[in-house]
Amino acid sequence: MSTTDPDALLGPADIRELAAALGVRPTKQRGQNFVIDANTVRRIVRTAEVRPDDVVVEVGPGLGSLTLALLEAADRVTAVEIDDVLAAALPTTIAARMPERKDRFALVHSDAMQVRELPGPAPTALVANLPYNVAVPVLLHMLERFPTIERTLVMVQSEVADRLAARPGNKVYGVPSVKANWYAEVKRAGAIGRNVFWPAPNVDSGLVSLVRRTEPLKTTASRAEVFAVVDAAFAQRRKTLRAALAGWAGSPAAAEAALVAAGISPQARGESLTVEEFARIAEHKGAGETT
Question: What is the CATH code for 12-212?
Fold first, then answer.
């Protein structure tokens, strides 16, 4: 643990002062809600189990509240920021508040969905307060693109946290739950109140922990093939899988053949299946076809 100044982290007055100096008004369009509570960012870093040898990637650092707390604990931090003004200001904030760590910080000024590579050593952890409107696609993109990320902790809207961590049979279990589970063991890791943000959002937030599978899912189907089944199953989630997968398979009969071959009832619904079962269905596409 580095011995940084306890006042290096940003408090409510610091955040408002920085925002005023930059002419920044948090925008709904980008889902910006800045964390103004130093105890909350330290709690996030603790919950993420950030280690002194970690290379952490952070998406949407904003004014730098969480970035500074991550720099206290990790070996290095790379922040991905889309906003021009925020991206330009962040290195200055880091240099002013943690001068001894500034060489451990890198900024990527980009839309996270467009990021294909990161500077420096490969990331070992992803820790972020994700903008509510893009949380799931950004999370899945980063997990797919950077297989060296072993541990992830994201703060998202509470209902998104519920969906990501849901188990089969739960009414909010769906596409995000299955796809996140393809990569990792997923669980809720706490709740965050509204009053730690500026502006205070009108929804609660939750922490989600994702620990990457040590062994990839055992399947002969590709990720894209499995995800195609998942998307089809939940596009019409009230229908039986025989009906919901008809388009994917080519016909209801072809869907039924694939399901039977995979050992899954054609009358089942997508919300009852594990990611392993979706993978089995993908493996048996075309099962009923005669050559």
Answer: 3.40.50.150
